[in-house]
Amino acid sequence: MKSSLSLLALGCAMAGPALAQDKTLTISVYSFAQDEYKEALYDPFEEICGCELVVETGNSVERMAKIEANAANPVIDLAAISTQDALSLTRKGLVAPIDTSKLSNFDKLYDTAKDPIGDHMAVGYTYYATSIVYRSDLVSVESWGDLLGEELAGEVSLPNLTSTQGPLTLMMLGKTMGEESDFAPVISQIAEKADDIVTFYARSSELVQLMNQQEVIAAPVGRFAWSSFRNSSLPFAWAEPEEGQAGGMNVLVMTEGSGNEELAYQFMDYWLSTEVQGKIADMLVDSPANKEVTVSDEVADNLTYGADVINTLNILPAAEILDKREGWVEQWNNEVIR
Amino acid sequence: MFRNTREGLALALPAAIFAMLLFLVPVGILLSEAFRTDGSWTLQGYIDFFASPLNRTVFLRSLKLGVLVAATAAVIGYAAAFCIVNLSPGSKGRVFGLVVLPLMISPVARTYAWIVILGRTGIVNMAITGLGLSDRPIRLLFTETAVFLGLLQLFLPLMIISLVSAMENIPRDVIPAARVLGASWPSVFLKIILPLTREGLVIGGTLVFTGALTAYITPAILGGSKVLMLETLLYQKVNVSNDFVSAGVIAMILILMSFSANLLLKRIATVRR
């Protein structure tokens, strides 16, 4: 009898942690600013849900590959990715539609963030604007076309086409050439000027370094990197080109058949809340997709913030990028990189 | 040394298993991807790779830079090694230490040093504009020249170390004897030093060529996307395009090029013997 009670006690002791472990949410996110996310999002959520949050990070390709490889038995419950990656996963049947009635903060989102890829397969959590950062003491940039002009020849960097900013830059250069639907002439134009372009950068951190080393005096970049330039001792300015700013959005998706949907909805809703979006914005990590978030002028200056900015962004549809990217990359490799 | 073969095998087995499991097996699996398209075994990955003009350019550029770096390192290495072996024992240690010192510093730091030298505000451009040779800085970074210089600086110590080891085995009085008998310096080099240091040249050449071919950091920083090398292209295929077939093809090409360089150098050394 005594031994039976001991076994029962041992069983109960073992069952406790097992139950707690059962309430686990695994998320896949971009690897930057994880300390800030932990403070503003992960730790408070764990306290609210009484669950364990497993955070997996990596670049887009790695994270997409993992979701695809584990399609039969998903290990990721929720992912933060770009709109084109979300659409790619959707077309492969790897993400589940979102029941927006389960998101109390859904109506607080800007309209373009509510259903960015169609069929409610994703929901936007942050925007980013893309414009041109330049050395205001050396040059003045008024148009996207200035990037390929004589004044900046040999002193400009463009994003590589394979980066997020690449297609957006093509779109805006296309606007200056009257080629808004076909990027082939735009790529050919860049190829003609390839010798005047210092390099094609892959990451915004690389560009920050290039501009601080004075290798480059103008380049297109996402607004999220602007704080790195503002803190520099060199006089950088953010261009407001006559063609406007390009823009994009990152979204949240739920994997198909994860079996952890309720907790995923809870986490998604919390991430989209005014409180969390405001905290993350104040940390200058993400620009809010929740239109009720208010931030100081100083914070706003570092973000893609407010209806006036967001509603005028030139956003390239995810389907356009996904359907045409392979052809763009092939032409880019053959003509531009050589 | 051992009482029987079985004892020797038993001692070698743990290391062999370690190497097999942690190196050969995963690398083998990765490389096998290069021979698979749509689930069937094929060479299509290689055909597709070489059908692309960009890939051919990258392949030839990598081969050219690898050969140039190895050849230049050999020329500079022979001069440096000859000086080092003829120094007094105390000076030899100090100079040899200076040659080896860069190897103790991260390749990333060594590569970034080139930005300070070759950048628009770097030492070279300051000298050029200061001397009035040009009214504006010259583009030196993100060129093949920058990648060549970075790779040469990175791997030159390996060539010097190999050649110093080989030259120390040359009997001390052979070169003076040849000179006394009227041999010119080119003859001394071609007929005495080169044949007697072949092994060092093969080892150094293989290390430098393979190193230059497979280096990632230096071409990525000094060449960027405008001077793609096989290694930087491989990174792009894996981390940007998620194209593991092409990545496997490139990995196999790099391995084959490294083995071929070693075999070629060994062959040359054997033929001349």
UniProtKB/TrEMBL annotation, chain A:
GO terms for molecular function: thiamine binding; thiamine pyrophosphate binding. Keywords: Signal. SUPFAM superfamilies: Periplasmic binding protein-like II. Residues 1-20 form the signal peptide. It comes from the Bacteria. GO terms for cellular component: outer membrane-bounded periplasmic space. GO terms for biological process: thiamine transport. This is Extracellular solute-binding protein. It comes from Celeribacter indicus.
From TrEMBL, chain B:
InterPro entries: MetI-like, MetI-like_sf. Keywords: Cell membrane, Membrane, Transmembrane, Transmembrane helix, Transport. It is a multi-pass membrane protein. This is Binding-protein-dependent transport system inner membrane protein. It holds the Pfam family BPD_transp_1. One of its GO terms (cellular component) is plasma membrane. Belongs to the binding-protein-dependent transport system permease family. CysTW subfamily. The chain crosses the membrane at residues 12-31, 65-89, 95-119, 140-164, 201-224, 244-265. It is found in: Cell membrane. GO terms for biological process: transmembrane transport. Its main location: membrane. Residues 59-265 form the ABC transmembrane type-1 domain. It comes from the Bacteria.
